[in-house]
Amino acid sequence: MKLIKQPNSWSCMAAAAAMAFDCEIKDITERVGHDGNEVIHYGLRPPACFKGFHIQEIVDVGLLFGFSMTLIESAPSQTPDGTHIYDITKWSQFLDNQHRFECYLNNNQGILIGKARKYMHAVAFDKSEIYDPRGRIYDIDDCDLFLESLWIVSKNQIIPRK
């Protein structure tokens, strides 16, 4: 995996996807159909005011490139109605959720999404090495994100037609 720096403060998701798919940011934005710079949250300051990119747009582009993406949540839960929440904490092959998350992270590559100081941020990962679109490569132990989800990127055998 090669480090790709985000060209602006709202394109971390596109840059992380480009790293995970081994392509350029322009390949992502061309297929998504926008560059993320549309202001959609007028009451917020940059970068939060910009549209940016949604993970579903990245999943769709990944399929076009022949990749599948598998979601791994850091703290999965289930609820019948949005009020009664049951946290899933017991796993037959893992000690706990942290062990589960680390196992997937240490053995795959893809995209990590989490909250930085104030806003959400996306980075690429290859095994336990983080490729941060802000311009750094570092070990997962030095990651300052409050991790929300991990998306494993795998080469797919079926490429959908347009």
What does this structure look like?
The protein has about 160 residues and is α+β, with helices and mostly antiparallel strands. It has one domain: Cathepsin B, Chain A (Alpha-Beta Complex). The chain contains four helices and eight strands, in the order αααβββαβββββ. A hairpin with a 4-residue loop joins β4 and β5. The radius of gyration is 16 Å and the shape is globular. This is Peptidase C39-like domain-containing protein. It comes from marine sediment metagenome.
List its salient traits:
single chain, 162 residues, alpha+beta, Cathepsin B, Chain A, two-stranded antiparallel ribbon, 24% helix
The CATH topology name reads Cathepsin B, Chain A
Low-confidence stretches: none
* Percentage of residues in DSSP E strands: 25-35%
CATH architecture: Alpha-Beta Complex
Output the CATH class name.
Answer: Alpha Beta
- Order of strands side by side in the largest beta sheet? 1-8-4-5-6-7
Helix-strand topology string: HHHEEEHEEEEE
End-to-end Cα distance: 27 Å
- Largest sheet features: 6 strands, antiparallel
Oligomer: single chain
Question: What's the overall average pLDDT, rounded?
Answer: 92
What form results from the Cα inertia axes?
globular
Produce the secondary structure layout.
Layout: H1 12-21, H2 25-32, H3 55-65, E1 67-73, E2 77-78, E3 86-87, H4 97-106, E4 109-115, E5 120-126, E6 129-132, E7 136-139, E8 146-155
Antiparallel strand pairs: 1-8, 2-3, 4-5, 4-8, 5-6, 6-7
Helix pairs in contact: 1-2, 1-3
Organism: marine sediment metagenome
Protein name: Peptidase C39-like domain-containing protein
